[in-house]
Amino acid sequence: MSSASEYSSDLSSSLISGYTNYCSSCNQNSNIFTSSSSSTTNSRKSSRETVSPTYLLSTTSSGSLESLRAPAEVFKLITTKTYQIMKDQIDNNRELRSKIKDDDFIKQQLSLLSPGIDNSEKRFLVHKFTRSAMLLPDFNDYQRLSPLINALVNEVDTNDLLGCSTALEMLADIASSKQENINYFESIGLLQKIYKLFQTTKEDTDMGITHTACIRFFGYLSTTDSNALEKFPIFTSDVFDAIYHFDSLDPLRRKLAFETFAVVTKTIGAKRFLSSENCPYNIAKAFNCLAVAIARGSATPERKAWYLDNITTIFGNVESAESSNILKIWFNYLGEHFPKLLLIVLKN
């Protein structure tokens, strides 16, 4: 059966959609009522009960909250949509597992893997299946799907920059989903291949899109493999160097730098490593740079929103008491005036 994580994202968007549709319906009904009985409405402006499109809200004459009652229709809609999302996801995963075991289907997929740009669309449809299969929580058919996995890995080729970058994004999704996928990628030499690609594309301006995809790959990887920062020190050094010198980066590169920094700090293993006395990176300086970036008057509201997202990513992942203690220390690195700065930014 599908786990909650498999459909939580779709569930959230569905619930929002359900509420939006219901609110729209209520607003239409309210407008009709208002236009047909405006005189009655005017005479009841001092009424104690106020009707909201998403819930019924009753207040006392002083305006205090008296009751909050969600309409039964909304609960019914939520229940129906939740059930449908769960059912669809379970059915999709069941079909996916069936295809993995189907020899004829696998042969058909292999037949679509002809090389060349002209056939890239068909190949990436096959790669999409491979990605979906490996994202299943219980996937372990690595040997069975090895020809398909190898085909996806072979797309990491700088002769086709767009195809290479797309493949890296897919592989990043797969790697971040579970440690078993990372172990398999390591066993076939993929991690070292991408690490080498990261280094060779660093100084090549024509390889910017591929280098960015490599950064994202290792960023995603670090969310599952807590030792990634130590395994790939050149990547980690580049992340911190970009943070220390964020002023010299263009806006998009700066955004990527702070996003990556936020992501790589998520695991408890990363927190321990970055907080240890022997850590070669200055985590306090990195947080100070983040605070400065937010405080800069030249930072646009959009950029400040980016940085606040990074703050949420870093401090919103409290796994344990140990994690909480580390995050308290890190928050202090933002400076004693940061809470006040945060309130000002949010207000503006």
From TrEMBL:
Ranges that cross the membrane: none
Signal peptide: none
Gene Ontology cellular-component annotations: cytosol
Pfam families: Proteasom_PSMB (PF10508)
GO biological process, one term: proteasome assembly
Region (Disordered): 34-53
InterPro entries: ARM-type_fold, PSMD5
Family: Belongs to the proteasome subunit S5B/HSM3 family.
Annotated protein name in UniProt: 26S proteasome non-ATPase regulatory subunit 5
Annotated organism of origin: Meloidogyne enterolobii
